[in-house]
Amino acid sequence: MNRSLRLIRRRLLTSIPALLIVIILTFLLLETAPGDAVDAYLLSIGGGDAGVAASLRQAYGLDQSLTARLWLYLTALARLDLGWSTAFERPVIDLIAERLPNTLALMGSATALSFALGSTLGIIAGAKPESIKDIMLSTISLILYAIPSFWLGLLLSLLFAVQLRWLPTSGIETIASGKTGLYRLMDIARHLILPVGALTLIYTALFLRVMRAGMVEAWKLDFVLFARAKGLSRTRLLLRHVARNAALPLITMLGLQAAAMLGGSVVIESIFAIPGFGRLAQEAVTGRDAPLLMGIILVSAVLVVTVNLLVDLVQAAFDPRIGASEASS
Amino acid sequence: MPALPVSRRQILQISSLLLASTALPALLAAQQAPAGGRLVVAADSEPKNLNPAIVASNGVFFIASKVIEPLAEASFDGKDGLQPRLATAWEGSGDGLRITFKLREGVTWHDGKPFTSADVAFSALNVWKPLQNLGRIVFANLEAVDTPDDHTAVFRFSKPTPIQLIRNALPVVSSVIPKHLYEGTDIATNPANVKLVGTGPFTFAEHKPGEYYRLVRNEKYWGKDQPSLDEIIFRVLPDRAGAGAALEAEEIQLAAFSAVPLADLDRISKVPGLKIVSRGYEALTYQLVVEINHRRKELADPKVRQAIAHAIDRNFVVDTIFLGYASASTGPVPKNAPEFYDADVPSYAFDTQKAEALLDEAGYKRGSDGIRFTLKLRPAPYFNETRQFGDYLRQALAAVGIDAQIVNADSAAHQKAVYTDHDFDLAVAPPVFRGDPAISTTILVQSGTPAGVPFSNQGGYANSALDAIIAKAATTIDSGERTKLYNEFQKIVATDLPLINVAEWGFISVASDRVLNIADNPRWAVSNWATTALQP
Predict the structure, then answer these.
(1) Which of A47, A95, A161 shows the shortest C-beta gap to B440?
(2) Which B residues, 265 through 324, put their C-beta within 8 Å of a C-beta on chain A?
(3) How does pLDDT run across B33-44, given as a tens digit for each residue?
(4) Using CB atoms, which residue from A34, A48, A273 is nearest to B238?
(5) Do β-strands B432-433 and B38-43 pair in parallel, antiparallel, or remain unpaired?
């Protein structure tokens, strides 16, 4: 069988028990958090008597035992039913389907941009380590990386939306504008400039530094000396040999970053009022909404597993050594 | 208020005249302003159940009050502090067992069906009494509602029920929903709870989750030439800094309920085109309260509670934490409720020496480390101000030798710890005074509430004399007699300190100068906005 196919099959098989463990741990974790969905709801409406609390607990199924609820959840999940959100009184799957595209658009463009920008700048910086260009790029990127995302987000919003009025302060699109088709897409893109910009500025540094470090190492290797001796042009040496070797850890980084970005979007989504996945997760925890939180974690886990599988496949294509041992079994 | 030579009516008249004089330019402008326009408002939450007949909370009213109306709304100058909405008149019988409501004629639901007394009877018996968080208390003794004709509803009670209480509660507990959409369905899960159908000046158009609610003008509204606006949009802005920025960028025209944090008001007030309005919340007074767990031996001693009251500098709290947008409390009823407020109660001036003397007297001397005893302090996480006051209280108590250790938690965890598990010594809470002490104030000190009920006495305090007064007031028909009982109630609470009232505050609205007629009633933010207008 093809090496990639075997890799995929193996990964899918190992991910099922991993997901199961994630589900059970999340369930237990939420159980240990003090207060339940009824406590959270009663506070949000300014109180209610004991009768209200009891009938709500019954309606939410919170009067049943932990194992009964876990079993109910797992059997429903086996039928691909993600359940009912108590905090929103809507099916979990609808909420996720509504929020996930926004986050994917935000995170996807930020990751793609910062990857492209970071690796290019990393090549420029790593082309001649310790040069003026390198020192400047490394310093600026480090400063940007050290800035907290909420502060950068607010600052960008103050400058470009409040002072200059070039861009909207927040939201995913102009409210109730009735725009459709291409106009709507352009409207969404306009709204995404600031949040994507804030995330890109921060994450570019990460890719830049990994790329640069890889290049610095690669320059010292024997094959570079050999390639030079062979009389390769500097551009060809830089791009085909040094950069290509340095790119491998960058792709690994991309896989890790995909997971981090799903969670890291909470702050930016709140500041820019983007109804996304991160904000949904935060609302699920505040509302002690177990089914919703499980749905979010499950979908995130599936996404991360998929992205990492893709990363592995890309790496396997780049480097024949990767996946060979796994695939041979 | 026997001590005052003027009546409450006179005070209201004077204050309404004063208000009217300041509102005059705005009123003139309102006449000139052409009707229409879209008002965009900041909203910080999306209630999952938007039906105010079931969930009587400010978060729900903020949006739903424009669509679904109560029998009467609060008023600065109306009779009994009310202005008629779906009811035009109300009268109680001498024995307190019946209240007759005359209902407005010619009102239709947004789906075209006529509004009748059957809707009121259905709402009262099937929703307010059994399901509503506050109605369960106010209408506990409601037995039946007779509907002799389409525009008369007679509420019959099994025990004498004060008309004063029902009147004061009307704006909050009497939202009427259409019988024809709810009868025979599971009321709690009816789709009309999220896609509202009412009689109000605006109809519910759409909710885009995470983004906005859109309400549009009800062309058939019963109010003459109302509403002024074509459309209201509640834009969801979860981040507090976001509301200020959106106002400055002119993307929204109004942020109510202090959506712009107090700390930003100074800066925002200097932005041309924006105004800061602190009126329109008089009937939604929040109270900053120190809850006390009387199960703790030290705190069961009245001297220790008095010492804590003396250790708090109320003026500092008002000036520093609320930046002046609050006033110091004297007792459990706020000054904004002149019908009940009694200033003649024991007061506790800021005096650390006296506090220390009281603690010494109680037998809790400072130890070698300067500490008398240690307490667990839980500030409620719902407002910046409750958290900040928690920090202040820790320092204030440290000054008199009490070591208070702050435990922070999120809302659900705080509710469980304080109101179910009683795992606290002191807690900071923001209860609301809702127009009458019997609605949500006496429950803060009354004994016998089971564990698990938020914003109730969970500190184990029991005072039979106080309980007797609360019980008596609940069935006293004569308003004067009943008010006297609540004066007595205030004296006992201020003397015995089952809890410590520190400050009381309303909220702040920030609006564009183009928004007219805001704050024209004491529950403005949660009223119907039929008169609110927007200059083009």
Answers:
(1) A47
(2) none
(3) 558 899 999 998
(4) A273
(5) unpaired
Contact A175 B242 (CB under 8 A): no
Name the more confident of B5 and A70: A70
Q: How far apart are CA B331 and CA B495, in angstroms?
A: 9
Residue among A51, A154, A165 whose CB faces B249 most closely: A165
The tokens for A91 are 């099916």
- Across the interface, of B248, B414, B417, the residue whose CB is closest to A162 is B248
How far apart, in Å, are the Cα atoms of A225 and each of A122, A212, A232? Answer: 21, 19, 10
Q: Sort out which chain A residues have CB atoms less than 8 A from B417's CB and list them.
A: 34-35
- In the predicted model, what is the mean pLDDT of residues A141-145? 87
User: Is B415 within 8 Å of A49 when comparing Cβ atoms?
Assistant: no
Best CA proximity match to A122, nearest among A41, A216, A189, A31? A216
Residue entry with tokens 């004089």: B21
3-state secondary structure chain A: CCHHHHHHHHHHHHHHHHHHHHHHHHHHHHHHCCCCHHHHHHHHCCCCCHHHHHHHHHHHCCCCCHHHHHHHHHHHHHCCCCCEECCCCEEHHHHHHHHHHHHHHHHHHHHHHHHHHHHHHHHHHHHCCCCHHHHHHHHHHHHHHHCCHHHHHHHHHHHHHHHCCCCCCCCCCCCCCCCCHHHHHHHHHHHHHHHHHHHHHHHHHHHHHHHHHHHHHHHCCHHHHHHHHHCCCHHHHHHHHHHHHHHHHHHHHHHHHHHHHHHHHHHHHHHCCCCCHHHHHHHHHHCCCHHHHHHHHHHHHHHHHHHHHHHHHHHHHHCCCCCHHHHHC
Answer whether B292's CB lies under 8 Å from B327's CB.
no
**Pairwise CB contact (< 8 Å): B412 & A88:** no
Tell me if B412 and A48 make a contact (CB, 8 A cut-off): no
Q: Which residue has the tokens 């505040």?
A: A286
DSSP state of B108: B
Interface probe, candidates A30, A38, A39, chain B, greatest B C-beta count within 10 A: A39
Q: Read off the pLDDT of residues B506-535 as tens digits, 9 standing for 90 and up.
A: 999 999 999 999 999 999 999 999 999 999
H-type alpha helices, B201-301: 240-248, 262-269
- Can you tell me the distance from the alpha carbon of B430 to that of B289, in angstroms, rounded to the nearest whole number? 6
B420 touches chain A (CB under 8 A): yes
Provide the 3-class DSSP secondary structure of residue B471. helix
User: Can you tell me whether residue B305 is helix, strand or coil?
Assistant: helix
Contacts of B208 in chain A (CB under 8 A): 175-176
Closest residue of chain B to A41, computed from CA coordinates? B412
| Interval A189-224: pLDDT, tens | 999 999 999 989 888 888 898 889 888 888 888 888
For the segment B372-422, what is each residue's pLDDT rounded down to a tens digit?
999 999 999 989 999 999 999 999 999 999 999 999 999 899 999 999 999
pLDDT of A47 > 80? The answer is no
Asked if the C-beta of B261 comes within 8 angstroms of chain A's C-beta atoms, the answer is no
C-beta of residue B532 within 8 angstroms of C-beta of residue B201: no
pLDDT given for residue A263 in this prediction: 65
Query: What is d(CA A36, CA B416) in angstroms, rounded to the nearest whole number?
Result: 8
Closest-CA distance of chain A to residue B437, Å: 16
State the Cα–Cα distance between residues B242 and A157, nearest whole angstrom: 9
The whole-angstrom distance between A195's CA and the closest CA on chain B is 13
SS3 B203: strand
Among B367, B345, B348, residue whose Cα is nearest residue B302: B348
Nearest by CB to B59, from A44, A48, A273: name it.
A44
Residues B52 and B171: their CA atoms lie apart, in Å, by 11
Sheet holding B98-103, edge to edge: B87-92, B98-103, B152-157, B142-149
